[in-house]
Amino acid sequence: MTAATRLISRLTLVTGGGSGIGRAVCQRLASEGASVVVADISEESANETMVGLQNDLRGQGHMAAVVDVSSKESVKKLVTRIQPPSVCVNAAGITQDHFLLNMEEDHFDRVIQVNLKGSFLITQAVAQALVACGAPKGSIITVGSIVGKVGNLGQVNYAASKAGVEGLTKTAAKELSRFGIRCNCVLPGFISTPMTEKVPEKVIDKMKSLVPLGRMGEPEEVADVCVFLSSDDSRYITGSSIEVTGGLFIG
Ligand code: NAP
Description:
Blueprint: E1 11-15, H1 20-31, E2 35-40, H2 43-51, E3 63-66, H3 72-81, E4 87-90, H4 105-132, E5 138-143, H5 147-150, H6 156-176, E6 181-188, H7 194-197, H8 201-210, H9 219-230, E7 241-244
Helix pairs in contact: 1-9, 3-4, 4-6
Bound molecules: NADP nicotinamide-adenine-dinucleotide phosphate.
């Protein structure tokens, strides 16, 4: 089997698949032969991703699905509608930036609910489905962030949520390895997506000046690492966090 078809006959689920990094992950998974469930809170953007996916490799069939990852009911509805996916990428996420001194409780709660609780609900539901059907293996990937390790001005909620998903993923890796399910995190730095379009130009310029490789990353560069972690090329990797930052905040 060539590297370009290493995910043939895998069913994959990608949350946040309607935009940015999640969309790039869907495209990369499909280009390697996977069937993709593109899940997003926005039906329109999930459909837009789905119709653009490569679908001419053996047995491929994609679908778009609406999910609010922060709702247990919505996650359950999605996961019971599909076959247990042997690959799951948690890419849904939001920011609601404010300085600590001014942050409303709602801003804190919502970011934790989507980024952290959402990753918990999806990881739990997918793992339960895989274990229940006796699947021999699975790979669950969560998109964290480098700011979960180092903090970031105006992002006390977001940094806390992303630090949380690393702990969640490492714990899931310990508990699920006996079922053949691997769990890993990808920690992007500053990537050009609709999420970072909201960041003021002068902040972006400052950040770029701190990146050793001298530029922002592209969603496809994060997707490549997610696809590596999805495939058997990473079969001996679990509980790890891979930084995709261009060297930003090297320890
Ligand atoms: P993005 O373009 O905004 O994509 C995020 C997607 O998640 C959007 O389609 C969004 O829908 C969807 N979403 C939001 N809330 C949801 C919910 N409750 N349930 C299901 N889907 C939901 O952002 P991105 O930059 O690609 O981010 C993807 C992931 O990478 C996030 O976890 C983010 O925290 C992480 N990350 C990004 C960067 C970066 O620099 N871009 C860096 C580190 C980590 P709507 O647009 O309709 O809200």
